[in-house]
Amino acid sequence: MVSPFETDLKWETLLEYGTRQFVKGKTAIYKQGMMGEGFYYLHKGLVKIVTSTFKGKDRLVNIVVPGQIMGLQAMDQQPHFTTAIAVKNAVVYHFSCLPFLEMLKARPELLSLFTQTINQKMRILLTAINMKALTSEEQIARLLLNICEDFKNHEVPLTQQELAECAGLTRITVYKILKVWKEHGIIEIKNRSFVVKRPDMLKPPQLTAHTARTV
Protein backbone atom coordinates (compact mmCIF):
# COMPACT_ATOMS: atom_id res chain seq x y z
CA MET A 1 0.00 0.00 0.00
CA VAL A 2 1.18 3.53 -0.69
CA SER A 3 1.93 5.75 2.28
CA PRO A 4 1.70 9.55 2.57
CA PHE A 5 5.50 9.70 2.52
CA GLU A 6 5.55 8.06 -0.90
CA THR A 7 2.67 9.92 -2.54
CA ASP A 8 3.12 13.50 -1.32
CA LEU A 9 6.89 13.61 -1.72
CA LYS A 10 8.35 14.69 -5.09
CA TRP A 11 11.15 12.16 -5.22
CA GLU A 12 12.49 13.44 -8.54
CA THR A 13 13.79 16.50 -6.69
CA LEU A 14 15.67 14.34 -4.17
CA LEU A 15 17.32 11.73 -6.38
CA GLU A 16 20.59 13.68 -6.31
CA TYR A 17 21.03 12.49 -2.71
CA GLY A 18 20.87 8.84 -3.80
CA THR A 19 23.00 6.47 -5.87
CA ARG A 20 21.37 5.00 -8.99
CA GLN A 21 21.57 1.24 -9.47
CA PHE A 22 20.38 -0.94 -12.37
CA VAL A 23 19.05 -4.34 -11.28
CA LYS A 24 18.26 -7.27 -13.58
CA GLY A 25 15.06 -9.23 -13.15
CA LYS A 26 15.15 -12.06 -10.57
CA THR A 27 18.16 -10.42 -8.87
CA ALA A 28 18.20 -9.56 -5.16
CA ILE A 29 18.59 -5.88 -4.30
CA TYR A 30 19.26 -6.74 -0.67
CA LYS A 31 19.00 -10.01 1.24
CA GLN A 32 17.60 -11.05 4.58
CA GLY A 33 20.34 -11.02 7.21
CA MET A 34 22.56 -8.65 5.21
CA MET A 35 23.69 -5.56 7.10
CA GLY A 36 21.94 -2.47 5.85
CA GLU A 37 23.04 1.11 5.52
CA GLY A 38 20.18 3.19 4.21
CA PHE A 39 17.06 2.52 2.14
CA TYR A 40 16.03 2.20 -1.52
CA TYR A 41 13.65 4.11 -3.79
CA LEU A 42 12.17 2.23 -6.77
CA HIS A 43 12.31 4.42 -9.87
CA LYS A 44 11.37 1.83 -12.51
CA GLY A 45 10.38 -1.84 -12.51
CA LEU A 46 8.65 -4.03 -9.95
CA VAL A 47 10.06 -5.58 -6.77
CA LYS A 48 8.73 -8.25 -4.43
CA ILE A 49 9.62 -8.28 -0.75
CA VAL A 50 9.86 -11.74 0.80
CA THR A 51 10.95 -13.22 4.10
CA SER A 52 12.32 -16.72 4.64
CA THR A 53 10.59 -19.03 7.10
CA PHE A 54 12.45 -21.38 9.43
CA LYS A 55 11.75 -24.12 6.84
CA GLY A 56 13.63 -22.12 4.21
CA LYS A 57 10.56 -21.15 2.19
CA ASP A 58 9.97 -17.59 0.98
CA ARG A 59 6.81 -15.82 2.12
CA LEU A 60 5.58 -12.79 0.19
CA VAL A 61 5.44 -9.63 2.32
CA ASN A 62 4.78 -6.86 -0.19
CA ILE A 63 4.99 -5.74 -3.81
CA VAL A 64 6.87 -2.48 -4.39
CA VAL A 65 5.89 -0.36 -7.40
CA PRO A 66 7.67 2.71 -8.85
CA GLY A 67 7.54 5.68 -6.50
CA GLN A 68 7.78 3.59 -3.33
CA ILE A 69 10.63 2.95 -0.90
CA MET A 70 11.95 -0.25 0.68
CA GLY A 71 14.55 -1.46 3.14
CA LEU A 72 13.61 1.06 5.82
CA GLN A 73 14.24 -1.42 8.62
CA ALA A 74 17.98 -1.17 7.98
CA MET A 75 18.22 2.59 8.48
CA ASP A 76 19.70 1.97 11.94
CA GLN A 77 22.45 -0.14 10.34
CA GLN A 78 20.89 -3.41 11.47
CA PRO A 79 20.42 -6.59 9.35
CA HIS A 80 17.57 -6.66 6.84
CA PHE A 81 14.74 -8.97 7.96
CA THR A 82 13.40 -9.28 4.41
CA THR A 83 14.78 -9.83 0.91
CA ALA A 84 13.98 -7.54 -2.04
CA ILE A 85 13.95 -9.23 -5.46
CA ALA A 86 13.42 -7.46 -8.78
CA VAL A 87 10.51 -9.17 -10.57
CA LYS A 88 11.65 -7.50 -13.79
CA ASN A 89 14.52 -5.18 -14.74
CA ALA A 90 14.53 -2.28 -12.31
CA VAL A 91 16.17 1.05 -11.57
CA VAL A 92 16.59 1.89 -7.89
CA TYR A 93 18.23 4.68 -5.93
CA HIS A 94 20.05 3.86 -2.72
CA PHE A 95 20.00 6.51 0.01
CA SER A 96 22.70 5.85 2.59
CA CYS A 97 22.43 7.27 6.10
CA LEU A 98 24.75 10.28 5.72
CA PRO A 99 23.14 11.69 2.53
CA PHE A 100 19.74 11.04 4.11
CA LEU A 101 20.70 13.22 7.09
CA GLU A 102 21.72 15.95 4.64
CA MET A 103 18.36 15.55 2.93
CA LEU A 104 16.59 15.97 6.28
CA LYS A 105 18.49 19.19 6.93
CA ALA A 106 17.27 20.54 3.61
CA ARG A 107 13.74 19.20 4.10
CA PRO A 108 13.07 18.81 7.87
CA GLU A 109 9.37 18.11 7.23
CA LEU A 110 10.41 14.70 5.87
CA LEU A 111 11.06 13.32 9.35
CA SER A 112 7.40 13.01 10.36
CA LEU A 113 6.49 11.60 6.96
CA PHE A 114 9.32 9.09 7.24
CA THR A 115 7.92 7.93 10.59
CA GLN A 116 4.48 7.48 9.02
CA THR A 117 6.01 5.31 6.32
CA ILE A 118 7.69 3.03 8.86
CA ASN A 119 4.35 2.58 10.64
CA GLN A 120 2.70 1.80 7.29
CA LYS A 121 5.34 -0.83 6.51
CA MET A 122 4.64 -2.52 9.84
CA ARG A 123 0.93 -2.71 8.98
CA ILE A 124 1.85 -4.27 5.62
CA LEU A 125 3.96 -6.86 7.43
CA LEU A 126 1.06 -7.78 9.72
CA THR A 127 -1.23 -8.14 6.69
CA ALA A 128 1.33 -10.38 4.99
CA ILE A 129 1.50 -12.64 8.04
CA ASN A 130 -2.24 -13.26 7.66
CA MET A 131 -1.94 -13.97 3.92
CA LYS A 132 -1.07 -17.63 4.46
CA ALA A 133 -4.44 -18.13 6.15
CA LEU A 134 -6.07 -17.33 2.79
CA THR A 135 -6.73 -19.73 -0.08
CA SER A 136 -4.56 -19.48 -3.21
CA GLU A 137 -7.45 -17.72 -4.96
CA GLU A 138 -7.79 -15.17 -2.16
CA GLN A 139 -4.03 -14.56 -2.10
CA ILE A 140 -3.93 -13.75 -5.82
CA ALA A 141 -7.02 -11.54 -5.53
CA ARG A 142 -5.47 -9.58 -2.64
CA LEU A 143 -2.20 -9.24 -4.54
CA LEU A 144 -3.87 -7.96 -7.73
CA LEU A 145 -6.04 -5.47 -5.84
CA ASN A 146 -3.04 -4.10 -3.93
CA ILE A 147 -1.03 -3.63 -7.13
CA CYS A 148 -3.99 -1.93 -8.84
CA GLU A 149 -4.34 0.45 -5.91
CA ASP A 150 -0.63 1.26 -5.87
CA PHE A 151 -0.45 1.81 -9.63
CA LYS A 152 -3.77 3.71 -9.64
CA ASN A 153 -4.52 1.58 -12.70
CA HIS A 154 -6.50 -1.62 -13.30
CA GLU A 155 -3.87 -2.97 -15.69
CA VAL A 156 -1.32 -5.10 -13.83
CA PRO A 157 2.06 -5.23 -15.66
CA LEU A 158 2.87 -8.86 -14.84
CA THR A 159 3.01 -12.11 -16.79
CA GLN A 160 1.43 -15.26 -15.32
CA GLN A 161 4.91 -16.51 -14.40
CA GLU A 162 5.79 -13.24 -12.64
CA LEU A 163 2.46 -13.28 -10.80
CA ALA A 164 3.15 -16.85 -9.68
CA GLU A 165 6.61 -15.84 -8.44
CA CYS A 166 5.19 -12.85 -6.57
CA ALA A 167 2.53 -14.97 -4.88
CA GLY A 168 4.82 -17.92 -4.19
CA LEU A 169 2.45 -20.26 -6.05
CA THR A 170 2.96 -22.62 -8.98
CA ARG A 171 2.31 -21.34 -12.48
CA ILE A 172 -0.34 -24.02 -13.08
CA THR A 173 -2.23 -22.93 -9.94
CA VAL A 174 -2.21 -19.31 -11.10
CA TYR A 175 -3.23 -20.36 -14.63
CA LYS A 176 -6.27 -22.29 -13.36
CA ILE A 177 -7.45 -19.42 -11.17
CA LEU A 178 -7.01 -16.79 -13.88
CA LYS A 179 -8.79 -19.02 -16.40
CA VAL A 180 -11.88 -19.14 -14.16
CA TRP A 181 -11.76 -15.38 -13.59
CA LYS A 182 -11.46 -14.76 -17.32
CA GLU A 183 -14.51 -16.96 -17.97
CA HIS A 184 -16.46 -14.90 -15.40
CA GLY A 185 -15.40 -11.64 -17.07
CA ILE A 186 -13.47 -10.54 -13.99
CA ILE A 187 -10.14 -10.10 -15.76
CA GLU A 188 -8.77 -9.80 -19.28
CA ILE A 189 -5.48 -11.53 -20.04
CA LYS A 190 -3.09 -9.72 -22.37
CA ASN A 191 0.38 -10.66 -23.61
CA ARG A 192 2.36 -9.40 -20.62
CA SER A 193 -0.31 -7.95 -18.34
CA PHE A 194 -3.76 -8.40 -16.84
CA VAL A 195 -6.67 -5.98 -16.83
CA VAL A 196 -8.89 -6.23 -13.76
CA LYS A 197 -12.32 -5.45 -15.26
CA ARG A 198 -14.39 -6.25 -12.16
CA PRO A 199 -12.31 -5.43 -9.05
CA ASP A 200 -15.45 -5.70 -6.91
CA MET A 201 -15.62 -9.42 -7.79
CA LEU A 202 -12.18 -9.99 -6.25
CA LYS A 203 -13.37 -8.87 -2.83
CA PRO A 204 -15.25 -11.04 -0.33
CA PRO A 205 -18.00 -12.16 -0.31
CA GLN A 206 -18.26 -11.83 -4.11
CA LEU A 207 -15.02 -13.75 -4.65
CA THR A 208 -16.38 -16.75 -2.76
CA ALA A 209 -19.88 -16.54 -4.20
CA HIS A 210 -19.09 -16.08 -7.88
CA THR A 211 -15.83 -17.91 -8.59
CA ALA A 212 -15.13 -21.62 -8.39
CA ARG A 213 -12.53 -23.06 -6.06
CA THR A 214 -9.74 -24.27 -8.30
CA VAL A 215 -7.12 -25.41 -5.82
TrEMBL record:
It comes from the Bacteria. One of its GO terms (cellular component) is cytosol. One of its GO terms (molecular function) is DNA binding. Keywords: Activator, DNA-binding, Transcription, Transcription regulation. Residues 134-200 form the HTH crp-type domain. Residues 1-75 form the Cyclic nucleotide-binding domain. Pfam families: cNMP_binding (PF00027), HTH_Crp_2 (PF13545). This is Crp/Fnr family transcriptional regulator. It comes from Brevibacillus brevis (Bacillus brevis).
